[in-house]
Amino acid sequence: xxxxxxxxxxxxxxxxxxxxxxxxxxxxxxxxxxxxxxxxxxxxxxxxxxxxxxxxxxxxxxxxxxxxxxxxxxxxxxxxxxxxxxxxxxxxxxxxxxxxxxxxxxxxxxxxxxxxxxxxxxxxxxxxxxxxxxxxxxxxxxxxxxxxxxxxxxxxxxxxxxxxxxxxxxxxxxxxxxxxxxxxxxxxxxxxxxxxxxxxxxxxxxxxxxxxxxxxxxxxxxxxxxxxxxxxxxxxxxxxxxxxxxxxxxxxxxxxxxxxxxxxxxxxxxxxxxxxxxxxxxxxxxxxxxxxxxxxxxxxxxxxxxxxxxxxxxxxxxxxxxxxxxxxxxxxxxxxxxxxxxxxxxxxxxxxxxxxxxxxxxxxxxxxxxxxxxxxxxxxxxxxxxxxxxxxxxxxxxxxxxxxxxxxxxxxxxxxxxxxxxxxxxxxxxxxxxxxxxxxxxxxxxxxxxxxxxxxxxxxxxxxxxxxxxxxxxxxxxxxxxxxxxxxxxxxxxxxxxxxx
Length: 501
Prior knowledge:
Layout: E1 17-19, H1 26-40, H2 43-55, E2 60-63, H3 65-71, E3 79-83, H4 87-94, E4 100-102, E5 110-115, E6 118-124, E7 129-130, E8 137-138, H5 145-150, E9 160-164, E10 167-172, H6 177-183, E11 185-186, H7 192-198, H8 201-213, E12 216-217, H9 219-228, H10 237-248, H11 253-262, H12 265-269, H13 271-275, H14 289-303, H15 310-318, H16 323-326, E13 328-329, E14 335-336, H17 340-354, H18 359-371, H19 385-395, H20 399-408, H21 415-438, H22 450-457, H23 463-479, H24 484-498
Parallel strand pairs: 3-6, 11-12
Antiparallel strand pairs: 1-10, 2-3, 2-9, 4-5, 5-6, 7-8, 9-10, 13-14
Helix pairs in contact: 1-3, 7-9, 8-10, 8-11, 14-15, 14-20, 15-18, 15-20, 17-18, 19-21
């Protein structure tokens, strides 16, 4: 059933508007009581702003995610407001009150402010129209909160709380947002096809909210996404990447990814992930590499010890994307994916660069994908100290994340094999710790620096110094720390053999 039409703005509160502390139904009482508790933590700033705007004759509402999250008892310190005041009026009102202002969103009617280290954004009521070509809104300011709420992405984000000099006042819910929160369902204020036609990114935002909030999508919303997913191709890479990051950092990113892949959005924004459904994993323990990767993502998240780790989560999701391209059916009936980590690392670079990620993110995720299989050469502790040093050196600052990724990649249902793999990795970590106690594994460098090399060889800075430095580093990796005398002897021997080319 379609949501109700927006309520009118008559003098008496229309249906859908009621005092925050007096809900219409017993079912809503708990939700609004939770919102009251959450909003009470911001009572001071609400009263100050309410008084400021009331004195100037303007309306002010707390809106969008701020209200939704208050109902869910997860209100963030950053608050979003809407008002009938125009941007220039907002600046005049806020300048004497705020500690800092910024106007980067002024073209869209938004002024940012900070007061006592609390950040907030206030936006003029919007009644936008979209050109359906560039997908950019033709910004048009509105005159009522109803105009503003009806243009929002989902009904759970189309609730508002009027703010007065006394703080939080009436709760505005003309589009059934509270019922949608109670049911945990994402539906659109208007027809889904109209909402997604205005801004296709809202489809991907649905997957993000599924991950962040644990909601499901209404059947009509899912049907519209399946029909309109190709429209995401019109959205800039930067906006897509921002939504993907929020999805991955949510409480249940697997649910968001599943919605994205099943509805066809993944074919547009992250085709390599859905493409893994074609490749059976080598152990035949999962339906396909896609579901194996989702399991690895879940297990990697369970190993996080300092909050959500975007690099680790990306690496866990993408660690096997090279398998479809390297799949080979062997004569014994098995399936192999030789060098899929090398191919996968290259694919990660290409995909993340296309999404305009930073060089650091691209380098870190691709390096974890490249290294995730190396441990399997460890066997039952057969690595030399040199191999352990190279493992640590190649991982560099990513070593803690590599530990988690490798452990998460153990998804076999064979309990003995799983226990053996974990025991082997325990042994490798113990050996790393043992070596680290004797030498600085995090900064494996030659025992002679560039200046010493030039002085001993009597040569100026140039390519030969770099070659000598790399030779000494290889020795350092192979043999561990050398004394100065040993390093000098090795350098002179190398120079005798290679220096006069």
